[in-house]
Each structure stands twice: as structure tokens, then as C-alpha cells.
């Protein structure tokens, strides 16, 4: 029996969290009235991505007064995208919304997302940020660069500035979770399915409390996963660099042969060193790019899960030490 069949509800809201003890009470205060007003069976599936602060305690307290709150705790920090995937695989709703807990994305938009999906029979409703003035300039510039790069690489199926705040139908969720890819970047995977979709825009607010859990290192990792996950451009770049390197080597060979034939002597050490260094750098770059793809293939061959669930409040089992 799948998660969807086990006590299915009309709506599941998946919320990945990591060390969000400060903002969670505010998030619950904003989210619960919105969902109660929908007058449908719902569940809020919070995926605790290995938090090290008091997040588990805050969630358990909230669950005592909110029976629709369901907690899935991962044994170790698996990352934002993996936490969302864990929630999607365990969601039971016919409609599934994914949203972060930092309140930069307004929970009040969920009602409009559900309405639009039902009225227009849509499988996906994207929440698109049309105003990011509350973000830092660095964040806005890097976000624009990310989406522009993805578009140029061919991942232009979805709306620009659409992050991980979206609504999906049960068919969409099942299609996503059936994919064998381990390093899913959902903001690219979901649009690539081509399911009927709509867009709602909103103003991105400042974080309500706490600090961002998405430092530069994670942003770079997301960019690498996005590029290698949606495009063969890096491999083609390696091919072209190899082709150019071969042409350069051929030209140098002809030059050396001509010089030898006419009796020219070339000091050569500096130029040879520069050429060897340049070619070696290109080779290393190509190996690095190829290594990204080989690594992803190797990970999929192993079949190791990207997360391990320590406790699911739906089962009523106590977490193991």
C-alpha cells in the first residue's frame, strides 16, 4: 500500500525544515488558519532534515494541539531537495504543496493555488516571485544568473523565479517519485514533465526569524546538480575543448616540422612549458566535468537512498536511539 492509499487526504503540505526552532511557532500560526479555512481533509508533513537545535521539541509541542501535523525526521542532514523528496514519497494528499518554513513564501497563497488547480484542472501551480526586493543584492544577482544559465542550457520549461513553492497533483507527485534520479532538482524536474500548469505571483518577504540555511556552498552545489542534471552542455564543452586542443597540437606539430626542415632552432622551453600547462589544464577541466557525470551514474548504480527516516509520527512508533 502506497502512502497515498494509506488514509489518503485531499491536501498534503510538505515542509522541509533544518534548525528552524525560532520561526516554526510563527509558521504554525500563519499556516493553520489557512488550511482550516479550506474545509478539506489535510495533513502537514514536516520533514526534519536532521536538525541539531530544538526543532524536534517545537514540532512535538505543536503536534499535541494540531492533530493534522505529521513529523518525519531524517537521521542525518540530507539536504533541502532530498528532504522535499522524502516528503513527496510519504505524502498522502491528492494535492501536494511544498513550502519552506521561513515565511518568505506566504502560506496564504495556498488557498489560491488549490482554487486555481481545481478550476482549471491543472497538475502544477507554480508560485513565482515577482518582487525580490527583500533579498540581498548578491542573492538577486546569483538567482538571476542561475535561472538565466538554466534557460540557456535548455531547461526553459518552467517560469523564471519559480523556486520550490508549488502545488502538484497526485499524478505529478507519482511521476516525480518514480524517477530513478537521486540528485533531483525539483524546480527543474517538475517543469520538464510538461504537465498542465498555471502561475501565481507573490512578493517575497523577509525571513520571519532565524538565519538562512542556504549558504554559498549549498548554492554552488545546487547549481552543479542543476547543470549536470538537465544538460549535456558540459560534456559537449569537454568535447569541443578536446577538439580545439587537437587542432592546436596539429598546428604546433606542423610548425615544429617546418622549423626542423629549414634548420631553425627554437629555444622552446618557455613555450613548451606553457603549452603543456595549458593542455594539462584543459584535460583536468574535462576530467572534472566527466567526473561529475560518472559520479552521478555511480551513485545511481549503487542504489543507495539519499535519506534514512528515523521516525514517522504516523506510525506511532518511538524513535530508536
From TrEMBL:
CDD domains named in the record: DPM1_like_bac
Subcellular location: Membrane
Cellular compartments per GO CC: plasma membrane
Membrane-traversing stretches: 237-261, 273-294
Keywords per UniProt: Glycosyltransferase, Membrane, Transferase, Transmembrane, Transmembrane helix
InterPro entries documented for this protein: Glyco_trans_2-like, Glycosyltransferase_2, Nucleotide-diphossugar_trans
Any one GO MF annotation of this record: glycosyltransferase activity
Chief location category: membrane
Coiled coil stretches, renumbered: none
Membrane topology designation: Multi-pass membrane protein
Domain Glycosyltransferase 2-like span(s) in chain numbering: 12-174
Family the entry assigns: Belongs to the glycosyltransferase 2 family.
Protein name, per record: Glucosyl transferase
Native organism: Serinicoccus chungangensis
Amino acid at each position: 500500500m502506497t502512502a497515498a492509499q494509506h488514509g489518503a487526504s485531499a491536501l498534503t503540505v510538505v515542509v522541509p525544515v533544518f534548525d528552524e526552532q525560532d520561526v516554526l511557532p510563527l509558521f504554525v500560526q500563519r499556516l493553520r488558519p489557512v488550511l482550516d479555512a479550506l474545509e478539506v481533509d489535510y495533513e502537514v508533513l514536516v520533514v526534519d532534515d536532521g536538525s541539531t537545535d530544538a526543532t524536534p521539541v517545537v514540532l512535538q509541542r505543536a503536534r499535541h494541539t494540531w492533530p493534522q501535523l505529521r513529523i518525519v525526521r531524517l537521521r542525518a542532514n540530507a539536504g533541502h531537495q532530498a528532504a522535499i523528496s522524502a516528503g513527496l514519497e510519504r505524502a498522502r494528499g491528492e494535492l501536494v504543496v511544498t513550502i519552506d518554513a521561513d515565511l518568505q513564501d506566504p502560506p496564504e497563497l495556498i488557498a489560491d493555488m488549490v482554487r486555481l488547480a481545481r478550476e482549471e484542472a491543472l497538475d502544477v501551480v507554480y508560485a513565482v516571485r515577482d518582487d525580490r526586493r527583500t533579498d540581498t543584492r548578491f542573492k538577486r544577482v546569483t538567482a538571476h544568473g542561475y535561472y538565466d544559465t538554466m534557460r540557456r542550457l535548455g531547461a526553459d520549461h518552467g517560469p523564471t523565479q519559480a523556486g520550490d513553492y508549488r502545488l502538484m497533483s497526485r499524478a505529478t507527485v507519482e511521476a516525480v517519485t518514480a524517477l530513478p534520479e537521486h540528485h533531483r532538482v525539483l524546480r527543474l524536474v517538475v517543469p520538464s514533465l510538461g504537465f498542465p500548469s498555471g502561475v501565481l505571483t507573490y512578493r517575497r518577504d523577509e525571513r520571519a526569524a532565524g538565519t538562512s540555511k542556504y549558504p554559498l556552498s549549498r548554492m554552488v552545489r545546487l547549481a552543479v546538480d542543476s547543470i549536470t542534471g538537465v544538460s549535456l552542455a558540459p560534456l559537449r564543452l569537454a568535447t569541443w575543448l578536446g577538439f580545439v586542443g587537437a587542432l592546436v597540437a596539429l598546428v604546433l606539430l606542423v610548425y615544429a616540422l617546418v622549423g626542423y626542415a629549414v634548420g631553425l632552432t627554437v629555444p622552446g622551453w618557455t613555450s613548451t612549458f606553457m603549452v603543456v600547462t595549458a593542455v594539462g589544464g584543459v584535460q583536468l577541466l574535462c576530467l572534472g566535468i566527466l567526473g561529475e557525470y560518472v559520479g552521478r551514474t555511480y551513485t545511481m548504480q549503487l542504489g543507495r537512498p539519499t535519506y534514512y527516516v528515523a521516525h514517522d509520527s504516523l506510525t506511532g512508533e518511538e524513535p530508536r536511539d
